[in-house]
Design a protein that fits this description.
This protein is α/β, with parallel strands linked by helices. It has helices at about 10-20, 55-65, 80-85, 85-105, 140-160, 190-200, 225-240, 260-270, 295-300, 310-320; strands at about 1-5, 25-30, 45-50, 65-70, 110-115, 160-170, 170, 205-210, 220, 225, 245-250, 255-260, 275-280. Bound molecules: uridine-5'-diphosphate. The site of uridine-5'-diphosphate has 15 residues, from helix 6 and strand 8.
Length: about 325
């Protein structure tokens, strides 16, 4: 009885595997290591290196494992990059999900928890964003996530594959003991970049625009701790295994922090000067994204614990100090 984690060597997937094993689940991981790290995978999880678009490979994994449910994190995930090179996003995210669903259908696997994104909403008319608000992605990345959700919807109707789609807001932080964390090459995410400046690995943080219609002109995001995020995945898995119907939930902390507020919080946590300069806006960035997570709290019983951004930054800081060069250390 295995939970198969697609993309389980990535930042978020590796935390999922860690928490699944910790809770007593049997875990197996599929990852092509395009952006993931073998070292990030819990030693008790069986690891299969390969691409979810390779159907024979994926079938061979389902033949070896008695898969009861799939957690699907395997995707290209950068808003900015998806605007410059949309085709690999369409290929990996949409085609990859199609193959995963085809193999699930072949093997009679009926439950999938899916890593979706706030980018499915685009620029919201108002915040906090609730799940029934219109979806109008402003990036290729966001649109691929919405298409992937729709693919699962049709597979539910036709094959009874039940899904929970979790629309993440901004995920940050690391496991409390600092043993796994965020390591992208190149790094593009705000919190790790700020901390690389704090470590002296970068000169300064480029702030992408300070003329947005927000309190200080910089973009506002809702930051959620990766450990809380994975708690919601495990609750979603249990919800499906208890017969829950397909559903979509936002995952955020319900409060917004601007880029400048994040910099100030990081200065306090690290005690380091963090230089900034303002540059052009980044294509595809909405000005403000804040979640309403009431639905996840009410239906899944989710209760995020690390809602203070300083705490989120502090756990990421522990990881970055312990592994300044990521998994290459
Ligand atoms: N951001 C920034 N400079 C950077 C990286 C990010 O100003 O070097 C801003 C970005 O415009 C966005 C926020 O920080 O408003 C979070 O960006 P990130 O790439 O971490 O996550 P995203 O919102 O794209 O999922």
């Amino acid at each position: 009885m295995t939970v198969l984690v697609l993309g389980g060597a990535g930042y978020i997937g590796s935390h999922a595997v860690d928490q699944l094993i910790d809770k007593g689940y049997e875990g197996a991981v599929v990852d092509n290591l395009q952006t993931g790290h073998r070292e990030a995978v819990h030693e008790k999880a069986r690891f299969y290196q390969g691409d979810i678009r390779d159907k024979d490979f994926l079938r061979s994994v389902f033949e070896k494992e008695r898969v009861t449910a799939v957690l699907h994190f395997a995707a290209n995930s950068l808003v900015g990059e998806s605007m410059e090179t949309p085709l690999p996003y369409l290929n990996n995210n949409i085609h990859g999900t199609q193959i995963a669903l085809e193999v699930m259908e072949e093997f009679g696997v009926k439950n999938i928890v899916f890593s979706s994104s706030a980018a499915t909403y685009g620029e919201p008319k108002r915040v906090p964003i609730t799940e029934e608000m219109p979806t109008k992605p402003e990036s290729t990345y966001g649109d691929t996530k919405l298409i992937m959700e729709k693919m699962m919807k049709w597979c539910d109707i036709a094959y009874g594959i039940k899904y929970v789609s979790l629309r993440y807001f901004n995920v940050a932080g690391a496991k409390m003991d600092g043993s796994i964390g965020e390591d992208h090459e190149p790094e593009t995410h705000l919190v790790p970049i700020i901390l690389q400046v704090a470590l002296g690995q970068r000169e300064e943080l480029s702030i992408f625009g300070n003329d947005y219609n927000t309190k200080d002109g910089t973009c506002v995001r809702d930051y959620i701790h990766v450990v809380d995020l994975i708690d919601a995945h495990i609750l979603a898995l249990e919800y499906l295994q208890n017969g829950g119907d397909s559903n979509i939930f936002n995952l955020g902390s319900s409060s917004g922090f601007s880029v400048m507020q994040m910099v100030r919080a990081a200065r306090q946590v690290t005690g380091r000067e963090i230089k900034t300069k303002v540059v052009e806006r980044r294509a595809g960035d909405p000005s403000t994204l804040i979640a309403s997570s009431d639905k996840a709290r009410n239906i899944l019983g989710w209760n995020p614990k690390y809602t203070d951004v300083s705490e989120i930054i502090a756990t990421a800081w522990k990881w970055h100090q312990g592994y300044p060069n990521g998994y290459n250390d």
